[in-house]
User: Fold these one by one.
Assistant:
Number 1:
Amino acid sequence: ELRKLFPEHPLVGLNRVRHVLAVASGKGGVGKTTAAVNVALGLAAKGNRVGLLDADVYGPSVPVMLGLNDSPDWENGMMIPVEKFGLRIMSLGMITDKGKPVVWRGPLVSKAIRQLLGQVLWGDLDYLVVDLPPGTGDPSITVAQAIPGATVLMVTTPQEVALADVRRSIDLFNKFNIGILGLLENMSYFFCGHSEKPIEIFGQGGGEKLSKEFGLPLLGKIPIDLEIGKGGDSGVPLMILAPDSETGRIFQNIAEKI
Ligand code: ADP
C-alpha cells in the first residue's frame, strides 16, 4: 500500500525528502552529534522543514541532547518521528530499551538503519540530517549505500591523531561516490577568560591540513564552549539556548552554506 502511495524511492520514508545531509566523523567524541543537532536547528531556524535521524548505533545520544523521553508512535507499520524544537526526530535510542547496552552486529545494524531510513514517516522535508556512526565500519557503509544522494559534513578535532581516521572516512565516502560538502573543525580553541588569546588545546591546523589535502572547504571552526557542554547535558542545545552567541553564529553560518 505504502509503495503505491510513494513509489519513487526504494525506501518509502525518504520519498519526500529533498536533501540528506549525513554528519560523519572518523572517531567518536569529536562533536558529531553536537554538530548534527545544532546544524539541524540552524536549518530549521531559516524556515526549512528539517528531520534529524540519529543513526549512531554505538551511542545514540540525540535523545539526551534534545531531552526526549518519548517513543515514536506507529502507523501502518511506519514510525512517526517525535517533534521537538521544530525538528522531526527519530533515534535508535528511542526504539531500544533505555539503559540496556545494545550490541548491534553486522546484519542487524544494517537492518536497523534501513528501518530507520525507510520505515519512518518523515513526510515533506527540505533536509534530513543524519547523525552517522563514527568511523568506517558496517553501519557507515550501510547508510552510505542506502542514501545515494546524500552529502556529508565531516567533523574533526584539530589534532594529528584524529586526522588519520578522518582520512579513512573520506576514502570510504569517495569509494561509494558520496559527495562531501566540507569539513567542520570542532574544539578548535578556548578562551579562558583571563586573556584575549585563544588557547589551542588540541593543537591547530588539522582542519586546514585536511582541507588542502582533499580539496574540501573548511566550513567552520567551533571553539570549546561551556554552553555547548551544558546544552548537551541539559537537553536544550546551544542553538536554542543562545542562537546569537558567537558559537551560535558559527552554526548559523554553516547552516547557510548547506
Ligand atoms: P560525538 O557525536 O562525536 O561522539 P558529541 O557531539 O556527543 O560527540 O560530543 C561529545 C561531548 O562533548 C558531549 O558531551 C558534548 O556536549 C561535548 N562537546 C562537543 N563539542 C563541544 C564544544 N565545542 N565545546 C564543549 N563541549 C563540546
Number 2:
Amino acid sequence: GKVLVNDQLIERTEAVIDIEDRGYQFGDGVYEVIRVYDGDAFTAEEHLDRFLQSAEKIKMKMPYDKQQMLDFIDLLIKENHLHDGSIYMQVTRGTTSRNHIFPGNDIKPVLTAYTKEVERPKEKLENGVKAMVADDIRWLRCDIKSLNLLPNVLAKQEAMEQGCYEAILHRDGTVTEGSSSNAYVVKDGKVMTHPATNLILNGITRQVILQLCQANQIPVTEEAFQLEDLRTADEIFISSTTSEVMPVVQLDGQSIGDGKPGPLTKKLQTLFQEKIE
Ligand code: PDD
C-alpha cells in the first residue's frame, strides 16, 4: 500500500526513515490513531486538533496545518481503497546527529502515516472483555499522545498474559484510565470517568461519549474514582478509537454486575453506533 512520508504519498517499500530519527532514538514525537468507517475518517478534525495540541505541548512546530493533514488523510483513504480500518499518523522532531537538545530550525519534523484494514471488534463489543488492574507507572503528562509508550506496552503485555483485553491503571488507588483506553464505571445509573487532567489522555471517543450522555439525559460526572468503586461497580466499560464502547465484564477474575454487558453500556453502544453509521 501507499504511505505518507512528509507530504509525499509513496509505496511503503520505498519509505526511508533514518536511524537517527528522534522518534526512533528518543520517542521524541506524538501520534494519532483515527478510525475509518465506510471510507470516512471518523472525528478526523478532533483527532487533528489533539495532534496539533500534543505537538505544541512538546514544543514542536507541526510542518503542516490542519487542512493539509485532512487532505493527506483523504488521499491515503482513496489511494489505499480503505473502507473500514484505521489511520496511524505520527510526527517526530526530525533527524540529526544524536543529541538530547532540540535541533535547530533547519531540521524539519518527519510526518509519517499509513492505513490498515481493521474490522470492528463485534464479538467483544457484544460479549464484553476481561480486564485487570495495574499500577499506573507513567509520567505526569499523560494528556500528551506521546510516542513513549513503554509503560503502556508493559501493562498491556501483562494483561494479555493474564488472559485480559486491557489493564486498567490506578495511581495510589485512584483509577486513571486503561493502557490504551479511557475507563468508566456505572453506579446507580450514573456514569463516572476521570476528569481530563494531566493524568489521562482526553480520548476523542471519551468526548463523544460525554456528549452522548449529555444529549440523552444520562447522568455523567468527570470525577476521579477509586479502585474500590471499580470493583463494586454495577458496570464498567472502556473506550478508544479502536475499541469504541467496550464492556468490561470481569475484573481481576471477578464478575462485574451479572458478568454480562450492562444496560447503560449497551445504551451507549447503541447511541455510538448511530453516530458512526
Ligand atoms: N489509544 N488513553 C490512552 C492511554 C490511549 O492510548 C488511548 C487511545 C485512549 C483513547 O483515546 P481515543 O478515544 O482518542 O482513541 C485513552 C490508541 C487507540 C492507540 O494507542 O492505539
